[in-house]
Structures are given as structure tokens and as C-alpha cells.
Amino acid sequence: MSEHIDNIFDKNIELHITYVINYNKEAENIMKNWDKGEKIMNKVKDILKNYYSEYDEDGRLEKDNAHRMEFIATTKYIEKYLKPEDRMIEIGAATGRYSLYFAKKGFKVDSVELLEENLNILKNKIEPGMKINTMQANAMDLSMYKDNSFNITLCLGPLYHLFSNEDKLKAISEAIRITKPGGKIFLAYITNDSVILNYGLKKGNLKRLAKMCDENFKVPDIPEEIFSVSYIKDFNKLMMKFKNIKKIKEVGIDGIAPTIGAPYINNLSEEEFNIWVKYHLANCEREDIMGYSSHILYIAEK
């Protein structure tokens, strides 16, 4: 009997030791992955800091008619679902073009931005009476906000700079978590073909793109290229992982305006430009032309 108990005890010790070893290995792997993820995120942050220190993000959406298209169409679609008492958050607010626009209209807005430099520009533009709360934070960790806090959640930039599906899922999950049931979520992403049209064709870099892309001209998602891009079908496949939201629609938010259409659109008279805007808004939900848009707006309800 004593021998039997000793055998059981020895077996339990063996199992315990095996468990501890496996647990420690798992913990070690978690820490390695954590460190790796932290290093990648810091690298991305440094790259973005350098990029946006030289790029006029503050004036991007209004520097010419071609770039105005994105702001015109995006605000129009947000306003379709916006109610007077809605509370709004903009994740990845940059220098605050959208946050300031809606705060000026009387909405209470929380503005979250990764880069301190962008956030300082935003803060300096807040006028008396505007209800804007600013926060420096990462789109993948919005733990400072409670679940079900906002009626309108804007995520119009972070997905441009997240280079793995895992990170994109984290950011989207956080956006969904802080949105109230029945609330609307607006997610923007960049299309693959817009890079071919803009960087490749318009800016004369087709040879470089041919070397870096695969045989189907899929642009690689790496931090050094600044922007992450998606095919529409791949982004929709990613969104199917979320069972607590329903897709309302997708919109090709700026069409060919910032790419091959820019030289023509920027030469239009104000009257002609208004006609182009009318055409674009009438057709920007068409699936057959959506892929040539630089930015896609995915609208969902929680």
C-alpha cells in the first residue's frame, strides 16, 4: 500500500514538474512574442513620427479639390447616421480634422492619437466651447474607455499603419468594444490598387513596385512602406470574424480623385467640381469601381 502511494506521489510530482516546465516555456514564448510585438510597435511609431514630421497631415484633406473629396464623402456618410445627442470618439485623430469639425457642430468628441506631435496640433486648434477630450493612446489598447461608451466610433487612420491581421483585429475589436449596442462604427482602409495607380503609375515607380510586389502586384505590408493596404475581399473576410456587428455598407470614399484623376479634378471650375462631387456621391457604393478608390469606408452597426 505504501509503495502504491509512493508511486502515485512520484507520478504527481512528475506531472507537476512537467506542468511547470511547459508553463515556463509557454510564459517564455509569450514574453518573446510580447517583446517582439513591442519592438515592432516602437519601430512603427518611429517610422510614423519621421514620416508625419515631414508630411503636412494637417492640410492633407483640404490642400486641393482632389483631396477634399475624401473629407466631403466621409463626413456625408457619418452625418447620415449621426443623431443630435450622440457621443463620438475618433481613434487615430491625427491633427483633428474630423474631431474639430464635429466638435464645432456641438458634438462631444473624444480624440485619440498615437503621436504626441499630432495631438499637440489638435489641442492648439480647440476653440472655446468645443467639447473635445484628447488622449494619447494606441488604437490596439483603449482600456481607458469602458465598454459600450460611444454612439459613433471613427477609426479612419489606424488601419493604414497596422501590418498584421492580428494587430488589425485588436484595433477593430477595441473599436467595437467601446461602441454602444446600436452604435455605428466607421473603419477606413487603403486599397491595394490605389498604390499601383498613385505610387506606381502617377509617380513613376512601376519598376520598383514590380520588384517588391508578388506576381499579382499585391503590395507587401511592411512598416518601411509606411502604409498597409488591403483587397476589398480580404478586408471583408477579416471582418467576418466579428459576430457582434453587422455590416451596413462599404463606400469607395474618394474614387480616382487623389490618384490618376487629380490633375483633371484640380483643374475643374467650382461649378464643375460640384458636378464631380455629385457624380461621385451617386456612385461611390458601386462595387464595380470601388477598388480604384484610395480609401474604403466600412460602416457597421454593433
Question: How does the SSE layout of this entry go?
Answer:
Elements: H1 2-54, H2 65-81, E1 87-91, H3 97-104, E2 108-113, H4 116-125, E3 132-136, E4 150-155, H5 165-177, E5 179-191, H6 192-202, H7 206-212, E6 229-230, H8 232-239, E7 246-252, H9 262-265, H10 270-283, H11 287-290, E8 295-301
Parallel strand pairs: 1-2, 1-4, 2-3, 4-5, 5-6
Antiparallel strand pairs: 5-8, 7-8
Helix pairs in contact: 6-7
Description of the molecule:
The chain has 302 residues and is of the alpha/beta class. The protein has two domains: 54 residues; 242 residues, Rossmann fold, CATH 3.40.50.150. Helices cover 49% and strands 17% of the residues. It is built from eleven helices and eight strands. Strands 1, 2, 3, 4, 5, 6, 7 and 8 form an eight-stranded mixed sheet that branches. Strand 2, helix 4 and strand 3 form a beta-alpha-beta unit. The protein starts with a helix and ends with a strand. The N terminus is likely disordered.
Oligomer: single chain
The CATH architecture term of the largest domain is 3-Layer(aba) Sandwich
Structural class determined from secondary elements: alpha/beta
User: Main beta sheet, described?
Assistant: 8 strands, mixed
Tell me the domain tally: 2
How big a fraction of the residues is strand? 15-25%
Broad CATH class of the largest domain: Alpha Beta
Percent of residues in helices comes to: 40-55%
